[in-house]
Amino acid sequence: MAKFEIIEEEGLRLIKVLMNNETVRAEAGALFYFLGDIRMESQGTGGVGGFFKSLATGETVVRPSYTGTGELYLEPSFEGYHILNLQGEEWVMDTGGYWASEGSVQVDAKRNKLLTGLFGGEGLFQTTAKGQGQVVIKTPGPIEEVHLRNDRLVVDGTFAVARSATLNYTVTKATKSLLGSLTSGEGFVNTYEGTGTVLLAPNAYWEVMMLRQLWAV
Amino acid sequence: MAEIEIIDREGMRLVKMTLQNETVRAESGAMYYMRGNIQMESAGTGGVGGFMKSLVTGENIFRPIYKGTGELYLEPSFGGFHILELQGEEWIMDVGSYFASEGTVEITAKRNKLISGLFGGEGLFQTVAQGRGKLVLSTPGPIREIHLKNNRLAVDGNFAVARTGNLDYKVEKAAKTLLGSMLSAEGFINVYEGTGKVLIARTAHGKALMKGQIKDIISSKVAAAKAEAEREAASKAQQ
User: Fold this and answer.
1) Cβ of A164: how many Cβ atoms within 10 Å?
2) If DSSP states are collapsed to H, E and C, what string results for B99-155?
3) Residue B44: exposed, middle, or buried by beta-carbon count in 10 A (0-12, 13-18, 19+)?
4) Per-domain residue ranges for chain A?
5) How far apart are CA A33 and CA B13, in angstroms?
6) In which band, very low, low, confident or very high, does the pLDDT at A121 lie, cut at 50, 70 and 90?
């Protein structure tokens, strides 16, 4: 198993991967540097039509894979990372949420329902990860895991970073009537129903927050 | 031997050199203040054709020499400095990394292979330091020494600050095929092979980083405002 580590330096975070004759996939452009006998190959994200799906998700077209033995470092960022250890289950990630994964994890794309895609802020297609192994998710802030057991989670905004595929995800009006939704100041909300886990980043890291505030000026 | 110290103050760093009837060299424009009996002399960077070489490196033409006894302070920076103690080995510096050195260290220029120079981001010529004594590098952030022992380091970007002269440096396509390199968004990478050391600054100092980000935001907002004003002026002119 490749060993993933989150390193914090000067307020930035970066991912280090220790590889022992293994394969790791990473987001395109994420390569920072590597040490040792590691070869890069660029290929689609797997699955039939992976290339076209990538086009449709609006995410990067090709996610390169790195094979060999050594240390691989990915680009640092003010944002943070969360490592998931998949035991066969499937996760659906927010746009831009995928960062890296072990070769044993299958990375694909999933189509949301039309209404959900248009109003939910998650886009029409989302990246999915399935299989056994680790997945690194990029997140604007510290992750809070919300475990649902036949329960319902409502989120106003786009700070849900990933969810188990077993959950039913819909976009609904905040109140029953359209007028009520508009006047309550909430409009549409993201709803997760059923049994599974949602990863939320309710608070961004302060550097991310400050830069967002500056952009908004 | 000149005493060299890095002073960290208010998130900025500056280099203090204490001279005892000694000679040091510094990047041109780096002098901040000095006290005591120190004379400044302008000189080329030494070596045959040093002047011409400096011209082609695109680096500063004259690196002045400071001689005498006293204290010499160099310009502070949001970035940082790294002191190397040369024991006769050769170091090759990235463009802009040379900051100061003891008089016993010889400073010259080295030509990279054409393709490395054009695509590697390190430029066609690089500054070389050789000899015995201290060498001060200017670096955007904390330095990490990577020791290679018959190994290979690949770097995507130009955050390698310096390398020992015995390493083989070249620029390679990231993936095997050119198309693969382009599709993967990685393009070309800098490769260091063999036995030696590479100094990398994988992150800038926190305050320098924040300053850079804020500068980017401000300049993009200023550019947007300018474009908007031009559009308005153009539509008014049409009316």
Assistant:
1) 18
2) EEEECCEEEEEEECCHHHHHHCCCCCEEEEEEEEEEEEEEECCCCEEEEEEEEEEEE
3) middle
4) 3-216
5) 27
6) low
Nearest CA in chain A to B144: A9
Angle subtended by helix axes A206-216 and B206-238, to nearest 10: 20
CATH T-level assignment (fold) for domain A3-216: Double-stranded beta-helix (3.60.160)
Tens of pLDDT, residues A44-80: 444 444 445 555 555 555 688 999 999 999 999 999 9
Is pTM beyond 0.80 here? yes
Does B204 reach chain A within 8 Å, measured CB to CB? yes
| Mean pLDDT on A176-194 | 71
Tens digits of residue pLDDT in A4-50: 999 998 889 999 999 999 999 999 889 999 999 999 887 644 444 44
Prediction ipTM score: 0.77
Distance in angstroms between the alpha carbons of the first and the last residue of chain B? 73
Phi, psi of B214 (to 5 degrees): -65, -40
Distance CA(A209)–CA(B77), nearest Å, equals 26
Residue B171 Cα to chain centre, angstroms: 19
Closest partner residue to A76 among B176, B181, B203, by Cβ? Answer: B203
Task: Report the C-alpha gap between B55 and B45 in whole angstroms.
Answer: 11
Subunit contact A34:B154, Cβ cutoff 8 A: yes
